[in-house]
């Protein structure tokens, strides 16, 4: 392996670990108890999306999955850890694929296209989160579909909030000319 490839891999590993920690902290620092659902609304998906957009691929997805699952474990929701890891991993992985195909080459071309790419990839990721937790609660945890419905509303509120904050953070990172991927 060449020195350049090794340096890039080590850099991505470091950013992956850093973003996993930031994701965990963002998930745990601001927690608003859910109304009608077990759990809490948080801003962790902001870090999940930034992981996808900045690191991308498997590294970004691992940062999102590990950080979010660790937050659930530390917060006393161990039964959500497997589902959270898979859901957040998929969110970041899909968002990174979509942003890679639509957004990165638009960075200099058009602000509107850049913004559209981030919105599209973020919405896709958040839809994965909303449906993923709905089915996890209904089927894997065995609560049934009726009991899982309230989570759709709280997760939608979280999704909208985090999408807005993630896009704001992405704009700031772009202005600072910061790009890992």
Fold topology:
Elements: H1 3-29, E1 31-33, E2 40-42, H2 44-55, H3 57-74, H4 81-102, H5 111-140, H6 145-175
Antiparallel strand pairs: 1-2
Helix pairs in contact: 1-2, 1-3, 2-3, 2-4, 2-6, 3-4, 4-5, 5-6
Can you describe what's shown?
The protein is mainly α and 181 residues long. 77% of the residues lie in helices and 3% in strands. The protein is built from 6 helices and 2 strands, in the order αββααααα. It has helices spanning 3-29, 44-55, 57-74, 81-102, 111-140, 145-175; strands at residues 31-33, 40-42. A two-stranded antiparallel ribbon has the order 1-2. α2 packs across α6 (145-175). The chain is globular. The protein starts with a helix and ends in a 6-residue tail after the last helix.
Question: Short summary of the structure?
Answer:
With 181 residues, the protein is mainly alpha-helical. It is 77% helix and 3% strand.
């Amino acid at each position: 392996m060449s020195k350049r490839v090794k340096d890039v891999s080590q850099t991505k590993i470091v950013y992956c670990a850093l973003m996993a920690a930031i994701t965990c902290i963002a998930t745990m620092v601001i927690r608003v108890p859910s109304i009608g659902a077990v759990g809490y609304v948080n801003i962790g998906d902001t870090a999940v999306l930034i992981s996808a957009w900045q690191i991308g691929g498997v590294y970004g997805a691992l940062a999102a999955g590990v950080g979010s699952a660790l937050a659930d474990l530390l917060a006393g929701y161990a039964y959500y850890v497997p589902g959270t890891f898979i859901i957040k991993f998929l969110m970041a992985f899909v968002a990174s694929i979509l942003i890679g195909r639509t957004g990165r080459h638009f960075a200099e071309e058009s602000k509107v296209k850049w913004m559209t790419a981030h919105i599209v990839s973020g919405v896709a990721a958040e839809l994965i989160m909303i449906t993923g937790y709905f089915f996890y609660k209904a089927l894997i945890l065995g609560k049934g579909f009726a009991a899982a419905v309230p989570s759709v509303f709280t997760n939608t509120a979280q999704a909208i909030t985090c999408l807005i904050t993630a896009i704001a953070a992405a704009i700031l990172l772009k202005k600072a000319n910061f790009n890992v991927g």
